[in-house]
Amino acid sequence: MHPIVKPALRRGWRDLNTVQFGMTPAHAMVLGPVDTATGSFLELLDGTRAMPLLREQGRGMGLPDGHVEGLVDRLARSGLLDDATGGGPAAEALRGKKEVMDRLRPDLASLSLVVREPGGAVGRLAARRRLRVRVLGAGRVGAVLAALLAGAGVGEVEVRDIGRVEPWDVAPGGLPVESVGERREDAARRAVRRAAPDRPPRASAGEGEETRGLSLVILAPRDSLAVHAPDPASAEGLISSGTPHLYAGVVEATGVVGPLVLPGDTGCAGCLDRGRADVDPAWPRLVAQWRSGRQRRVGACDLALAAAVAGLAASNALAFLDGDPPACAGVRLEASLPGCAWRTAQVRPHPACPCGAARKTKGERPPEDGEAHETMAGRQPHAAQLAGTWRAHV
User: Three-class SS string for 9-75?
Assistant: First the structure.
């Protein structure tokens, strides 16, 4: 082990005997009391020294026997310590790719703040390279979202769509203006390759594109109706195969992220549709008219809102892929212009939906009137409980 105090946290002395690591309340910690010799020793925890050398230098600074081990253990248990050589063989191989690591250094620093164990952050970053994600939709949201995931180190990001790139598909970070007129899939794949810091590891023998398991499917339709009222039939294959999937898009200047569907555990598009029909008897009639009417050629999807949706969806997707509880498991996040304040609506499993999620949540209190929308803070613990049993397939 080569201990290093997590460099992502700024350090400051609150007084002569108390040091604070980090600035923001979410990740900052205070360590004390710290004597002068220990404070000087902290400077040696920079990842260049193994424990035997640290013990030797600690003795040279007058620190008593066992003090170095105790300090390192205390810092590690507090989540303040990383291991410059940890993470396993895959992490070691990733560290050997200097250009790749330089691209991913901000992502690694961010992961170090949410992963407590030493070496865990680089281990997660290395694990992303073995994941396979499919994005269905290559518009202003889908193409940017796919590029974000590839740029964050997800090894295989497939984009599927039909038709050719239109001028209104162009977006910074997504499809460039030079791609207008090209096949959407081809243009999106190039955008993903440009964003990726490295080529993904080669699949093992006998592990073809279609046989290798998908860690996540993201549905980012260009059709605004498919965002507002996703057709349950379009996800039947994902439900039956147990594939986690996430919805994201923009409809009439309203951004939507979620739900993240964990088949059999959380509410799905069918639950959403049936729940709306329970509350509004006219809902099925409206949906039938919307689906049979002539589709508008260009939807209300401005660049800033599309970028916000893509970023929030990518963040939730990465949280799930890394094994953390995303906020949108069984939840739909929405924000409308001009204020763009995110609000949360729970997608409860419906007893009539064949997805079967209602059987696991039987006994939960049904929502009262006015409970359709909840605050993010009030929703998050339940999402964490549900998502905690799911892990991406590596």
Answer: CCEEEEECCEEEECCCCCCCEEECCCCHHHHHHHCCCECCCCHHHHHHHHHHCCCCCCHHHHHHHHH
Closest residue by Cα to residue 42 from 56, 58, 28, 27: 58
Residue 170: CB atoms within 10 A of its CB come to 19
- One pLDDT digit (tens) per residue for the chain, 394 residues: 999 999 999 999 999 999 999 999 999 999 989 999 999 999 999 999 999 999 999 999 999 999 999 999 999 999 999 999 999 999 999 999 999 999 999 999 999 999 999 999 999 999 999 999 999 999 999 999 999 999 999 999 999 999 999 999 999 999 999 999 999 999 999 999 999 998 876 655 454 555 468 999 999 999 999 999 999 999 999 999 999 999 999 999 999 999 999 999 999 999 999 999 999 999 999 999 998 877 667 889 999 999 999 999 999 999 999 999 888 999 999 999 998 899 999 999 999 999 999 987 654 544 444 443 333 223 332 222 333 334 333 3
What domains are defined for the chain? 3-83 (3.90.930), 88-127 (no CATH), 130-387 (3.40.50.720)
Q: At 25, list the tokens.
A: 């309340």
**Amino acid residing at 106:** P
Task: Enumerate the β-bridge partners of residue 216.
Answer: 133
Q: Give the 3-state DSSP-derived string for the chain, with helices as H, strands as E and coil as C.
A: CCEEECCCCCEEEEECCEEEECCCCCCCEEECCCCHHHHHHHCCCECCCCHHHHHHHHHHCCCCCCHHHHHHHHHHHCCCEEECCCCHHHHHHHHCCHHHHHHHHHHHHHHHHHCCCCCHHHHHHHHHCCCEEEEECCCCCHHHHHHHHHHCCCCEEEEECCCECCHHHECCCCECHHHCCCEHHHHHHHHHHHHCCCCCCCCCCCCCCCCCCCCEEEECCCCHHHHHCCCHHHHHHHHHHCCCEEEEEEECCEEEEEEEECCCCCCCHHHHHHHHHHHCCCHHHHHHHHHHCCCCCCCCCCHHHHHHHHHHHHHHHHHHHCCCCCCCECEEEEEECCCCCCEEEECCCCCCCCCCHHHHCCCCCCCCCCCCEECHHHHHHHHHHHHCCCCCCC
